[in-house]
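Shipment paperwork, digital attachment
Item: protein structure file
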Amino acid sequence: MKRVLVFDTTLRDGSQGSGISFTVEDKIKIAKALDSFGVSYIEGGWPGANPKDDLFFSQMQNVSFKNAKLTAFSSTRRKGSKASEDENLCAIIKSGVKAACIFGKSWDLHVKYALKTTNEENLKMIFESINYLKSKKLEVVFDAEHYFDGYKNNKKYALETVQSAVDAGADIICLCETNGGMLPYDIQGIVKETINVFPKIKFGVHAHNDSECAVANSIIAVEEGCVLVQGTINGFGERCGNANLCSIIPALELKRGYNCVLKKNINKLAELSRYVDEIANLIPDDSNPYVGENAFAHKAGIHVSAIERNPETYEHINPTLVGNERRILVSDLSGKSNIISKANEMAIGIKDATSEKVKKVINIVKEKENNGYQYENADASFFLIAKKALGFFKPFFSLRGYRVAVEKDTGGNIVSEATVKLDIKGKEEHTVAEGDGPINALDNCLRKALIKYYPDIEDVFLTDFKVRVVNSNANTAAKVRVLVESSDTSKSWGTIGVSENIIDASWQALSDSVEYKLLKK
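Attachment content:
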């Protein structure tokens, strides 16, 4: 099996993405997760560039990796100086790492305008910087920055920069598609030609995603002979991001037969993706290939029907291979297959139901969706609809009425109060409660009324609350869709409510949440 080294730069290049800021503790957590996953290199940052990276490398000296090499990043020496006196290169030595990645210019346009020096001086900067790090017994990856643009504009000089790095003893030359504008055909030809010039040298690839081709460019570069691929988890990075390792790794491992990370860990890829998003405080992209929540979600009835017979009809891999799962969505596009599949998944009990019963559920769902409801992320509300439609549901309580009041006093203090009247087991419960806002007050009041009858709801708590305008053209009279996510000690579930009144929509979602908990109990 062919080996491809995975060079993760989430902590360095990925942190340059808009809205991403890792603390030292964040970086250590991610580094440990990447090592456990089995990547070969973890680029931790640029020592000497900022106090955070210096502290990270200092603390990492007490951390042992099982699989990865912690790598420090920097540039070649400054023009007109000595490598041994360059602050950046000396900071790499001081960081205590055993591997370094330094970048140098391979495009003469950058040499002229960015470095403001001569082509000859740039070649010396590359050679002397690498040579100095090698003299300190470090493994060196040389990032040939803007290599592909440089090759297209001045092939001879781009190759000279590679030759300079080779002569200095670089262990791997990483060809960088820094502007992100190349297409796979460009990458394929240039990588092939470059490797033909240097057949005994190990090459890598570093791609950016400005033309939505970073993953494809990385894969084609590996197919043409690159033995190292750089990228980030979830494609974090500057501008449009870097090559997404969460797509590259399974593509190479599962489709092309390469060995990239620990084989036993491929099914932890989705978990790693979500873990890094969580630390970065980002909402996961549900549409991410392989690892996104919608990557194996099926909505059209025809698709679901085929999936039930043979998953290969609409799934390019088994989702469990990357730690993901199949999702059958219920919507106005649903057919009998969707309803039966979802019913089986949720143990509703209509596996052998007649077509008329299934049709009844379908019609209710379609009517509800026509009025603004969506059940893709509200499985618990769908569960209740099906149970009620099929006559499998007995209410735990019924609403007689509620009132919500919001008061602001002269001191600027806002108080929200809710009053709820419920019929519970033949008895009327009239309850009052306050909250941080009107919805919180209503939630507190509902729980307060039910707790003595149904103590199991004590461990239920809200984890998310989303509001979406359904028909914005109606202005202030528009319907709103409220999605509530609730959890207990073992699982989470979603419920929905729709109304022109946000309080009423919230009541629907809140009461569904409690009823689902009680019914499942």
